[in-house]
TrEMBL record:
This is Arc-like DNA binding domain-containing protein. Residues 2-44 form the Arc-like DNA binding domain. It holds the Pfam family Arc. InterPro entries: Arc_DNA-bd_dom, Arc_rbn_hlx_hlx, Ribbon_hlx_hlx.
Length: 78
């Protein structure tokens, strides 16, 4: 990110600011980088990287999205 990127000003409770500061230190990020990272994660959390999931994990994710269908995985016959 550069200084040319747009800025936003927000108010947060002091406890939340302290938590974000602590997380930034733990993750070796600046406060700004930690906030940006967490915002990006929260906005993309609905999108699942399907290539990184096992078949079982993918089926669980599909089950959650489509009303809790109970699906069992069985080995395919080749």
């Amino acid at each position: 990110m550069s200084r040319a990127d747009p800025q936003i000003n927000i108010r947060v409770p002091i406890e939340l600011k302290k938590e974000i500061e602590h997380a930034a230190i733990e993750n070796s990020r600046s406060l700004n980088a930690e906030v940006v990272h967490r915002l990006q994660e929260s906005l993309s959390s609905g999108r699942v990287n399907k290539s990184a999931l096992s078949t079982e994990e993918l089926m669980e994710e599909l089950s959650k999205r489509f009303g809790g269908l109970n699906v069992k995985i069985t080995p395919s016959e080749e």
